[in-house]
């Protein structure tokens, strides 16, 4: 059923604000429920005409499966929500929604363990058939371009994304598609960050796709007439990180990633006016037992944050929580 829905959508999906943009989930089912039920403010909650999260609009940036232990629950829930509320949910494809990756990093093994070898293998094939039809990018309010990975030297206009034909079993056969799922901003310590001209270099960390500098981000935003680029694909200690004077933001929505790090998670709330804020999902419970997720409006978030020593405390004001710019990332 969800495959048929994906077939009716363009490769470049559309969403109107207000909406919530979600990064990597990676089989963390309880955190998926947290973010689906997140509220930016009491006033926002009162405005909702329906209870629960189904009245909201969501754009998911991919990587629903692998790494975590509840991939089947996560992907089944978001697919079911897409079927019941097709206009409220945009589900983009991530690099883990590809056969080679979710074969190696846990999804296929989880299916076979939970469903048995024969049924698990068959269900895995069906899921990857659905993945091959998923949109690769989304435009929010005509001004915010979303994808899992990043931009590409092959991205000259939004029509370039629309022209990518699906089903796309192997994203490596189309350069632009591969970059949309795999590309990264250049690390701070690389030389291309100081160039005033757009630069795309080979992504040596991942072994495929590219890294791009801030000038490439500015050039893409100007050429496509967009305000900002939102992507996922990298773990951020604070759950998010701005790049290129807030023209690009990385969102990662899996706190306590793989139960190995003390990272926070985050989602991006886009208001009808186009303003946006970040909800930070803390990684530890407060003394009261609550997770204390907090909303920070865009005006409270500095474009060039000062790195601070990480604190064990998770009970902070929204401004102090989000004013720290994440200083590192973990490739996924």
From TrEMBL:
SMART domains membership: PP2Ac (SM00156)
Region (Disordered): 282-332
A single GO molecular function term of this UniProt record: protein serine/threonine phosphatase activity
Compositionally biased tracts (Low complexity): 314-332
EC number: 3.1.3.16
Keyword terms, alphabetized: Hydrolase
Highest taxon in the source lineage: Eukaryota
CDD domains linked: MPP_PPP_family
TM region positions: none
Compositionally skewed regions (Polar residues) per UniProt: 283-293
Cellular component annotations (GO), alphabetically ordered: cytoplasm; nucleus
PROSITE patterns: SER_THR_PHOSPHATASE
Residue runs in coiled coils: none
Keyword Hydrolase: yes
SUPFAM superfamilies, per database record: Metallo-dependent phosphatases
Family: Belongs to the PPP phosphatase family.
Protein name: Serine/threonine-protein phosphatase
Organism in which the protein naturally occurs: Caenorhabditis tropicalis
